[in-house]
Amino acid sequence: MNTVKKKICILSILFVNHINYVQDMPVRDAVNKAFRPTNTAAANVPAQQLSADSTAVNLEAKRQAVVSLVGKGISYMQSNAEHLDQIFNGFTDNPDFILGELYLFVYDEKGVCFAHGQQKDFVWSNMWEYRDNYGLPVVQNIIKKAQTGGGWLTYTWRNATKVSYVQSVDINGKRYVIGCGYYPHAKEDSVVSLVKSASALFAELTHQGKAVEEAFAIMSYPEGQFVLGDLYLYALRFDGIVFAQADRPGLIGKNIIDAQDANGIKINQLIIEKLEETNQGVWIEYVSKKAPKKTYAQKITDSKGKHYFIACGYYPDADRKRTVDLVRLAYQGIKANGLIATKNIINDKKEDQFRYGDLYIELYTVNGVCLAHGNNQDLVDQNFWDAVDQDGKFYVRNMINKALKESGWVDYKLRNFFKSTYVQKVSLGTDTYIVCCGLYPISKRETTILMVKTAVDFFDAYPREEAFKDFTATSGKFVRGDLGIFVFDFNGLCFAMISFGKTF
């Protein structure tokens, strides 16, 4: 027997909770026990039903702590300018400068790392060419930000969106860049990160003389690096022509300047109007598929002076409750109106009866044949019994088996992120069908739980040595920002642990 153990930081900067997942204990029972809230009113609520507000990281407090730590580091450097080596060692190892997942990093203007509280092996390395998941020069952007007055910037680090605060400081005639950051684990920040990363990539490729179509093709790949669960990019030229669309590639080349929401808001015209008034990114709010949607957009310009915008949006109210409600609505529709009438409505993209934002219904036979799919009608009539997710799990098979036993949640990984799907069987005479609806939750609590569940499945499916190797890869699939997997047996012997870049 082995124990899979997960270290997390929740709710405040210094609150660290250790939770154990025992192989022979049902995972959900372990999750509910480990995450039982401290207030009595919520004590009996399952972890998957807790609201986002009850588990959210206090981002304002986090940002204040980040700024405070950078200020503390600058003051320490200025008051001990003759002992910089000791100061940099302190930033890297001294717990006074490492607060939970918050730590300091220091570079010179050539990209040489002098201190790094997360990965000691970076020290004395030249990080100038270090690139993130999108191929963007993270350290160069950090230095540029500091040189132009400092402040906040967003990028990808350890497979997650990171928001950092950086400043420039002059010590003994040499200029250094000092910074600190945090992982918000929130959809809003992930949206901004995707758009900014794509905009930076566009600028870099066009600067190299590449055609704009090459940059937009990267953004349009449905399984590519700019897709994160239900988050995807689209891009329009200012005349309304679509140049990128990762969710509906068929729109590329079409003019959608007059597209409007249920309230008559001309969405793309509004984005363009706002972007013409500023050089910063803009947010707009509107209604799509019966749900409030928030979209972030940023203007980009090609070498010929033509303007485009890159955008990404999300539905803040598309949660687990809405997911379960949609499944129950589809169940009732099948019972009341029959299979054929209901599946025709599900497959009709002009009908929103069984949609809410990016939530939609899937309907399967017990043999894995897709009868209806609210997001992609091309998948209808295909058999997904042997379909596997990005971790090699038979996710449709697992959904069917789960529903045949009881209604509930099934977790797997698609489109570069964790997905949770609620399933329920519906019987019509001697025939049984499976109704499903899934969501991609991005919050620290949800990500933590789904990471551990995925690790348990991986541990069961692969040789132990291979599992432990993957668990301890510093930029591997079992690392998301400040979250990482570690494993103990019942005697307390550690088999795998990753913590802030140090593997034990």
Report the helical percentage: 25-40%
Q: What is the CA-based Rg, rounded?
A: 24 Å
Low-confidence stretches: 1-55, 500-504
How large is the count of helical segments? 12
Tally of strands: 24
Structural overview:
This protein has 504 residues and is α+β, with helices and mostly antiparallel strands. It is 30% helix and 29% strand. The protein has twelve helices and 24 strands. It has helices at 27-34, 59-79, 84-93, 138-147, 187-207, 212-220, 267-275, 320-337, 339-347, 395-405, 444-461, 464-471, and strands at 2-9, 16-22, 98-99, 102-103, 105-108, 113-116, 151-157, 160-171, 174-182, 234-237, 242-245, 282-288, 291-301, 307-314, 355-356, 359-365, 370-373, 408-414, 417-428, 431-439, 479-480, 483-489, 494-499, 502-503. Strands 1, 2, 21, 22, 23 and 24 form a six-stranded antiparallel beta sheet that branches. Strand 13 (291-301) and strand 14 form a beta hairpin. The radius of gyration is 24 Å and the shape is globular. The model is unreliable at 1-55 and 500-504 (pLDDT under 50).
Short description:
The protein is 30% helix and 29% strand. With 504 residues, it is an alpha+beta fold.
Provide keyphrases for this structure.
single chain; about 500 residues; alpha+beta; six-stranded antiparallel sheet; about 30% strand; disordered C terminus
